[in-house]
Amino acid sequence: MPDVKKQHYVPQFYLKQFASPDERLYAFNKFTKKSFQTRVRDAASEMRFYDIHPDFYQNLQANNCFQESKDEPKVTNIPAQPPLTP
Question: Where do the structural domains in the chain lie, given as residue ranges?
């Protein structure tokens, strides 16, 4: 699997609906209050946006964040409720 670096937080297929035939669109920077033209492949993306640091899960375990096994009896003992009717 290739190492993906540029990761979109708005899917490109969605951005293409707002783009010109050459896949360009206008974006607005809220901080500088300026608009600019960009390509779909460059818009709404950041480098390694979804990457997780290797120590992330170790930190969760060290802070006792994985409690599924302790909480399971509480969840499975919830009494069944009748369905809601409109």
Answer: 6-68
CA distance 8 to 16: 13
Tokens of 10: 């708005």
**What's the pTM?**
0.54
Q: Which of 65, 68, 55, 22 is nearest to 41 (CA)?
A: 22
pLDDT in tens, 5-35: 888 889 999 999 999 999 999 999 999 999 9
d(CA 27, CA 38): 7
Buried residues in 62-81 as b, exposed as e (16+ CB within 10 A): eeeeeeeeeeeeeeeeeeee
Residue type, 78: I
